[in-house]
Amino acid sequence: MSDPTTLGDLQLAIMRVLWARGEASASEVHAALLAERGLAPTTIATMLRKMEDKGVVRHRAEGRQFVYRPAVEERAVRRGMVGELVERLFLGDPAALVNHLLSDGQIDPDELEALKELIAGRERRAQGGSGRG
């Protein structure tokens, strides 16, 4: 089985609908993505079946319709996909990713302040966990 935390573009869009709603039928997912994707309902239904085979969604029957729900948490998918990105593009070096984002100016001053606070919090937890401070 492929890694359930690594999703393609359409799979991720479908999962975002399911994470936001909790559950949805294939036709509801199709309606949610129609303006953005313009795909046929059968394409969405086929993708949902493939995603169920992959283990990222589950379904229950409601009459003659399947209602799908996420089988993986958004956080796990994000962690897996970022991990893959770091491995593939930055040779496993997360600092290289952060350096890239900072040097390319893709982080605005407000985001930079928020990141500083996150780093400070992480440093405090690390110091507390090691018996220091």
Shape: elongated
Largest sheet: 3 strands, antiparallel
- Give the topology string: H per helix, E per strand: HEHHEEHHH
Mind telling me the CATH superfamily name of the largest domain?
Winged helix-like DNA-binding domain superfamily/Winged helix DNA-binding domain
- How far apart are the first and last residues' alpha carbons, in Å? 45 Å
User: Which second-level CATH architecture of the largest domain applies?
Assistant: Orthogonal Bundle
Mean pLDDT: 91
**CATH C-level class of the largest domain:** Mainly Alpha
By secondary-structure content and strand pairing, the structural class works out as: mainly alpha
Per the CATH scheme, the topology name of the largest domain is Arc Repressor Mutant, subunit A
* Residue share in helix: 55-70%
What is the count of distinct domains? 2
The counted number of beta strands is 3
User: C-alpha Rg, in Å?
Assistant: 19 Å
Keywords:
133 residues; mainly alpha; Arc Repressor Mutant, subunit A; 2 domains; three-stranded antiparallel beta sheet; 6 helices; 3 strands; elongated
What does this molecule look like?
The chain is mostly helical and 133 residues long. The protein has two domains: 91 residues, Arc Repressor Mutant, subunit A (Orthogonal Bundle); 41 residues, no CATH class. The chain contains six helices and three strands. It has a three-stranded antiparallel β-sheet with strand order 1-3-2. The chain is elongated. It starts with 8 loop residues before the first helix and ends with a helix. The mean pLDDT is 91.
